[in-house]
Amino acid sequence: MAYDERQQVATFWNNIAHDFDAIYTGRKSFIGRVLDRTFRKDIYQRFDWVMERAGDVRGKNVCDVGCGSGRFVNELARRGAARVVGVDVAPEMLRMAADLVTQNGAARVCEFVHSDVLDWKTTERFDIAIAIGFWDYIADPPARLRIIRRMTTGKFLSAWPRYWTWRMPIRKVRLKVAGCPVYFFTRPRVYQMLESSGFRVERCDVVGKLFCVESRPV
Length: 218
Description:
- The protein has one domain: Vaccinia Virus protein VP39 (Rossmann fold, 3-Layer(aba) Sandwich).
- The model has no long low-confidence stretch (mean pLDDT about 95).
- The chain is of the alpha/beta class.
- The chain is built from nine helices and seven strands.
- A seven-stranded mixed sheet has the order 3-2-1-4-5-7-6, sandwiched between helices.
- The radius of gyration is 16 Å and the shape is globular.
- The protein is about 45% helix and about 20% strand.
């Protein structure tokens, strides 16, 4: 992702942080909630998929790349993770995430980093890494995948928007108008990128309009 695209993505998510988080909270009109449950159902499904595939996280260190408003971070901390680090480029998302874990008594084990993972200078290692709702906005994932590979010792759970679904052209037009790039992937391309970055794909589930992939470092 070129620098100008990073800025576009950060600005877009910063501006819609509260509207996006309302998908989880349900703080919308009745019609808005119905539309979310109908057309954005895989947002809830991918959350459930991550929690199922993460398994028992008690005592584990977890990194959420592209953590957004902290919904995954908060739940993983609630389930007993020893440490959860959320990384994101949108400061308003991170502020909301910090507020969420504070309100739920999980702040002690959580940390938030304002950075693109590409620029994050860390030597920390994580038992589990997740990147959900992240690859949609990355034109060339391998550089970031290699970084995630270096800091991951166990499971890597990722979600990839599928190429040629009915929602693909709608999202491309909507986000182009909003000034935010969006990308889609075929299954072979996802496998190729993960494997060339040092991961072994263990399973791939079709979840709505997504490929949800569980992999491990080779």
